[in-house]
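ok trying again, last paste got cut off:
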Amino acid sequence: LTAGPPERRRRRARLGQRGCGCVRSLQAWVSRRVGGWSLVRARGTMVRYRYREDVLTWLTRHGVCPRPSTPPALAHEFVNDLYRYELRRLREQLVSGTIPRIGYADRVVALRRKYPLVSLRPSEWAEPVS
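nice, full thing came through this time. structure:
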C-alpha cells in the first residue's frame, strides 16, 4: 500500500514503470535524501544530461538507471552511498570474525575495483545537453 494522495500514487506508479525498473528505488532514495523530486527541479527549468556510455554501463551494474534529467551529482552520491554501505558491511564481517583479517585488505581492494565511478568527479560522468 502506498500512502499519500491519489495523484502521488499514480505518479509513483508511472515513474516506476518507465526505464529499466530501478527508477522506483532511485526515486525513494531521492525522496529520503533530498526531500523529493521537487528539489531536483528547483530552478523550474529542467537540465538534460548525456551520460557517457562507460558510465552508463557501470551504473547499470549497480542497478542505477539515470534519466537524462538526473543530475550526475545525484547519481554519484547514490553510487557513493552504495559503496560505503558495502565497505561498512565488509568491516562488520571482519569485526564479527566472519572473514579472516589476513584477506581483508584484498577484499577492500576488490570492492574498490567494483566501484570505479566513485573516483570520478560527477562532472566527468555526463555533459549538459542544450
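cool. DSSP finds six helices and two strands in the chain. The radius of gyration is 17 Å.
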